[in-house]
Known about the structure:
homodimer, two-stranded antiparallel sheet, Polyprenyl_synt_CS (chains A, B)
Amino acid sequence: MALDGRIEQAVVGALALTRSGEGPPRLTAALDHAVFPGGARIRPTILLSVAMACGDDRPGLSDAAASALELIHCASLVHDDLPCFDDADMRRGKASVHRAYGEPLAVLAGDSLIVLAFEVLARAAADHPARAVELIKLLAQRTGAPGGICAGQGWESEPVINLAAYHRAKTGALFMAATQMGAAAAGQDPEPWEELGARIGAAFQVADDLKDALLTPEQTGKPAGQDAAHQRPSAVTEMGVAGAARYLKDILGGAIASIPSCPGEAKLAALVRAYAEKMTPVHLSPSAASAVRG
Amino acid sequence: MALDGRIEQAVVGALALTRSGEGPPRLTAALDHAVFPGGARIRPTILLSVAMACGDDRPGLSDAAASALELIHCASLVHDDLPCFDDADMRRGKASVHRAYGEPLAVLAGDSLIVLAFEVLARAAADHPARAVELIKLLAQRTGAPGGICAGQGWESEPVINLAAYHRAKTGALFMAATQMGAAAAGQDPEPWEELGARIGAAFQVADDLKDALLTPEQTGKPAGQDAAHQRPSAVTEMGVAGAARYLKDILGGAIASIPSCPGEAKLAALVRAYAEKMTPVHLSPSAASAVRG
């Protein structure tokens, strides 16, 4: 996909800022480790797809938004992997940042990536200051408290979890950021794009729950069975594999139906359909497939 | 001082944003714990003092800058206190955030405060978008990598420390942010204000080294002798108490001399002199005083 090249170039450009002065070399290396090689870069892909569906008249701003969003996602992975959260040894098939560089640099790498995300947007502001400010507000809202991914993770430290708020913040927030920032980068009102992001986020949550329950660490590049091990809420424990797979299909149908009217509407619907195909992991596991059929 | 009220009001307003939706209550409480009651709020005081010396024609923007800077400072304290860094039980005379709320919420509180700082600046942008963008760039530069406080802390994980870069980033960065953001909020070129911030930062580093070596935990509200315990570079171990006290005086003289020409120049010089008075802790300790005299 042509978007891949745009996203990697934008992320590489962002990380170059951390080498633009005399910084501590191991922290700089930890930042690279956290961001490269990337995963599927799904959030920035959705962001750029929405921007293009809306005309993408300021591609520099869209690229900055895409890389900023991916940096926040990478920061969240680094901090979520820390011993006090998932204590994950591996991420994307290699050592997690704290395993490779130690816990202090993992904390600092996450912090630095959050800062870098906002710096990238501020640096792209010359292109259109008002839109850049809107992008910074949207990204902050979907990252911090009370409704961003920090808050989402924070719900796991509560004695009683508000499940709707938890899922919306933990997984949904950065997908809502993706659709809304894509629209805002192209000068469109971000509000009507929230629902699409929320639905894609909910779909990814259910898909993740299915993957966590069904796939091996070799297939996902991270430890399996983490939801059960940490007693986290999961669509699979709530409604079983077959129920979760059906639910996933329903959400994706709703996502496509929610796409606001725009020049690239059909292309965007095709993209969501393609993700839906990729997201449904049941064909990877014969036992799960039979469970769904049965 | 009248500035105190402005700063508290701005910080209270910023924290109110974290209660503007359905967030996890313990994270919200941890954010309050991290920010209130404050310490001396020195960095925002310097920021507002410089803004006022430069005319302070957009007080809303100056207030946003002051609270954003204080939020970053509070975030850095929360993360620096974590077990993988200082493992501090106390901060500002009460339990550190991770002692009061656990390590996961301490990591998330620090992250959320960083995000909130940038959100506050973006929300103040309507007043003057170009200045707000400049403020976001300045704050990011002094917070992340390669030259901000994250990088400063990162130097402590290096096998060989670049001492000049370390001090400049670890303590100097937020004081340079204070003077430069104060000027930028008032529409002045921030560049000539860097030196004043750097010198005040250096003075605070030496004063901190003196306090760490001379004062008791009851006097500072945090553990004593941490530099020696963690084998951190310190002006006291490098040049002794008397040498460090002389060095502090020299730096502060240079700071006053470096103040750029502006309407409020004399008042600002008086403020730095007042800080110098407060900063020199030798009179608090009879043994140290005799060491300096001797």
